[in-house]
Design a protein that fits this description.
Order of helices and strands: HHHEEEEHEHEHEHHHHHEHEHEHEHE
Number of strands: 12
Radius of gyration: 20 Å
Structural class: alpha/beta
Strand content: 5-15%
Shape: globular
Bound molecules: flavin mononucleotide
Number of helices: 15
Length: 391
């Protein structure tokens, strides 16, 4: 086994911390305010337990499933993240790794690589949009994603523009050019491997967002785009239904925490919802998505495909989410740390760890496929779940 291989996501995180400049690492860690939601996302999974068998276990264990019309080889997909400055191959490396492991990649509107390159690396790419700019600009983005061949759309609207973390936010330059690199020099020289990767690729990361404009047009900077987003009038359910109609394929609405919102998403014609608190980066003290999943699954599980994201770090977490009503999960930081630790093979490493963890868990539980999982496979202590917005 090569020394670049890591055995857990926690180890990938340690390597990412060693390898990345401090600002880049803390931008990935993210979180918001006191970090309560960020912590709860992982703590909640550890509060759930399993009750394993010792005999009549299954020789064969199937993890394949379908999400938004795409067949995937395991119930894990890569969530869209604005992966800026982690690795020169950025979202293309993530897309290749996901394709190599037979699954979907989500591409953020704030991503650093053009969608055409990402879809070429993985035809199972879902493009993620925010309610950002004019309707015309939004339509232009959808048109570009359609022309590039993206088979699905993810709409993210759970962002409250909160600022400030008790442990401090990274200072991110407007554009990471050589001048800004010089300002960050003391951080960067302590991370020669990270710099070397970019030096080998022949450029410095520039923190622009090429997918917010037409192909080949000058890309706005991350902050320019963020400012425009803050100025955009906030969407209503009618606006979201309109957006859904503009895409003639499957659409996921990401960020659902409440039962009433889940029902509205069904009414707005969504194919899928992601039960999510944006990885704990949004409104702090929102409960972990795994706590709110059971009530949402009970209310709308028969009407919409349900995905969960937030805090997934091991195969057992995936099994818990599937047993409690999710069809699949999305991962964010886990693959970002893998990418930072070892590029594309690092992301493959993370997906492999999740796959083998799911397999071990199915084995212990005596299940032959993820389709057989039920809430009875998981020990849910009294008071664990939260039901938000059920009237
Ligand atoms: C650094 C970072 C950037 C993110 N950027 C986006 C984004 O651009 N669009 C989006 O819908 N979600 C974004 N997210 C949220 C993720 O898609 C996902 O909901 C979250 O990371 C899941 O939690 P996990 O990191 O614990 O797996 C981001 C998350 C992180 C950590």
């Amino acid at each position: 086994m090569s020394s670049t291989w890591f055995e857990t996501v926690a180890e990938a995180q340690r390597r990412a911390k060693k390898r990345l400049p401090k600002s880049v690492y803390s931008a990935l860690l993210a979180g918001s305010e006191r970090g309560v939601s960020y912590d709860d996302n992982t703590v909640a999974f550890s509060e759930l337990g399993f009750a394993p068998h010792v005999a009549e276990l299954s020789e064969k264990r199937d993890q394949s499933t379908e999400l938004m019309g795409q067949s995937i080889s395991l119930p894990v997909i890569c969530s869209p993240t604005g992966v800026q400055a982690v690795h020169p191959d950025g979202e293309v490396a993530v897309a290749r790794a996901a394709a190599a492991r037979g699954t979907i990649t989500g591409l953020s509107s704030f991503a650093s690589k053009p969608i055409e390159e990402v879809v070429a690396a993985n035809p199972q790419t879902f493009f993620q949009v925010y309610w950002l700019g004019s309707r015309e600009a939004m339509l232009q983005r959808l048109e570009r994603a359609r022309a590039a061949g993206a088979p699905g759309l993810i709409v993210t609207t759970d962002w409250s523009f909160s600022m400030g973390r008790d442990w401090g936010s990274p200072s991110i330059p407007e554009r990471l050019d050589l001048k800004a690199m010089a300002r960050f020099a003391p951080e960067v020289v302590r991370r020669p491997k990270w710099l070397l990767e970019f030096a080998k690729a022949g450029y410095v990361p520039d923190l622009t967002t090429p997918n917010l404009v037409g192909p080949g047009e000058e890309a706005p900077t991350f902050f320019g785009a963020y400012y425009e987003w803050m100025q955009t009038p906030l969407p209503t359910w009618e606006d979201l239904a309109w957006l859904r109609e503009q895409w003639d394929g499957p659409v996921m609405l990401k960020g659902i925490c409440r039962v009433d919102d889940a029902k509205r998403a069904v009414d707005a014609g969504m194919t899928a919802i992601s039960v999510s608190n944006h990885g704990g980066n949004n409104l702090d003290t929102t409960p972990a998505p795994i706590r709110v999943l059971p009530a949402i699954a009970e209310a709308v599980g028969g009407q919409v495909e349900i995905v969960l994201d937030g805090g997934v770090r091991r195969g057992g977490d995936v099994v818990k989410a599937v047993a409690l009503g999710a069809r699949a999960v999305m991962i964010g930081r886990a693959y970002l740390w893998g990418l930072a630790a070892n590029g594309q093979p690092g992301v493959e490493n993370v997906l492999d760890l999740l796959r083998s963890g799911i397999d071990s868990t199915l084995l212990g539980l005596g299940r032959s496929s993820i389709q057989e999982l039920t809430p009875d496979d998981v020990i849910v202590a009294p008071g664990f779940t939260r039901t938000l917005g059920a009237r």
